[in-house]
Amino acid sequence: MRLLPCFILLTLCACQAGQNDAVIPQAPSVEKLGGLAGRIVFQSNRDGDWEIFTMTPAGTDVRQLTKNAWQDEYPVWSPDGRTIAFKSNQQGNYDIYIMDHEGSNVRRLTHHAADDEDPAWTADGSKIAFHSKRDRGLEIYIVDVQNGLCKQLTDTRGRNILPAFSPDGRYMAYTGSRFLGWTVYRYSLAGGKHEKLTDLDACRPDWSPDGGLIAFVSGDKSPKADIWVMTPEGKAARKLISDPASYDYYPAWSPDGSHMAWAKAADKKKGNWEICVMQLATGQWKNISQHPAQDKFPDWAFPPAP
């Protein structure tokens, strides 16, 4: 197995962005990961359907937050770690919901006949963006957490999905398709300008905590899919996590930017998705979920102590 160390993203995308390989050190011990702070939220079907769980970055103290007869998916922490947004089809179609960090006080935010999917918090935690086919195509919308008011954020040719906001609140990165394939774009929230950041076949952008890098998923020069990083201007793209035997997806930075969580599987549709954590300075990594069920869509934060 090969993963690339670096010093310094759907079932909707088959992704592909150019550069090199490297040999990686041995995976870290449980003790080294045991000192990491925060909790990782993720979705799993280990109880028979998609539910939401959290665990430590070492994969211990697994807690199930939702348990019901419907699908709860794509969980993401609010910037302060106190709230989790997710999509759920408990009313038939998918809407955006939020709940407190320990799984209580579930509230429905969107009410629409179309599927509202894959939420992302704004930098100040006041709003949540998501993609939906409410009008003529897939576009990104944004809903106010306090009053539930919703408006359309993008309106372009093609399709726009998977938003992610910069920590300074100035930009939204997202996955867009204008003609063929998927590409990562950057949208200026103040100026309204859309900028293409990658070549065709790249998706799932995720900003580093300091805003200096964007992680994303691409299958360029890979038999499956890798995790890359680039500057916010789309420069200096390079592989961060690369394993020719696996699909590496769903990048999620640690709150301090020193580690990354992601999910990997040998087969995108039929493989066993596992959540892993890598120390970026050394390339050392570990499978932390180690479960026969599908574990995916990790997100990492510092929630309040229980």
Describe the structure.
By secondary structure, the chain is mainly beta. It has one domain (30-301): TolB, C-terminal domain (Neuraminidase). 2% of the residues lie in helices and 42% in strands. It is built from one helix and 24 strands. It has one helix spanning 30-34, and strands at residues 39-44, 51-55, 63-64, 72-77, 83-88, 95-100, 107-108, 116-121, 127-132, 139-144, 150-152, 159-165, 171-177, 183-188, 194-196, 202-207, 214-218, 226-230, 238-241, 247-253, 259-265, 274-279, 285-287, 295-301. The strands form six sheets. A four-stranded antiparallel β-sheet has the order 3-2-1-24, with no helix packed on it. A hairpin with a 7-residue loop joins strand 17 and strand 18. The longest helix is centred in the first third of the chain and has 5 residues, at 30-34. It is globular. The N and C termini lie far apart (38 Å). The model is unreliable at 1-14 and 16-26 (pLDDT under 50).
Rg, Cα atoms, Å: 18 Å
Sheet with the most strands, sense and barrel status: 4 strands, antiparallel
Portion in helices: under 10%
Report the CATH superfamily. TolB, C-terminal domain
Give the beta-strand count.
Answer: 24
The CATH architecture? 6 Propeller
Helices and strands, in order, run as HEEEEEEEEEEEEEEEEEEEEEEEE
Structural class, judged by helices and strands? mainly beta
Strand order of the largest sheet: 3-2-1-24
